[in-house]
Specification:
Strand order of the largest sheet: 4-3-2-1-6-5
Largest sheet: 6 strands, antiparallel
Number of domains: 2
Number of helices: 2
Amino acid sequence: MATAIEKVLRASTYAKPPTSITARLTEYERSERLRRASGIFLPLFGAALVSLFIPVWHLVGVPGFLIVAFVLARGRFGQATAVDSVEGTCPSCEELQCFAPPSSSELPVTLRCPGCSAFVKLEPQ
């Protein structure tokens, strides 16, 4: 079962005092990660099986679909947390902003402020 949590992070930028930003995360248990990984693996594996019967295409399609299936499924299975949203006061423009969620949940991470386009570094408090 996926669990939603909130984390307060320290946001800093060049020559400005740091502020706090709230990140909403989803933590996945092992069974949920397995379900998500199989949800991406099975359609790609099916595409590899279908392309097995297409002449000439099977030379590229089968290995390509299988490699992509294993790589993407491994990535989904290894992802224990996902960042849903990041919002808070930008340290540069000092306004409340909704930041684009980063692709990685590893900290520290650098995002751009949607208001002033400043680079904002997020790290644990």
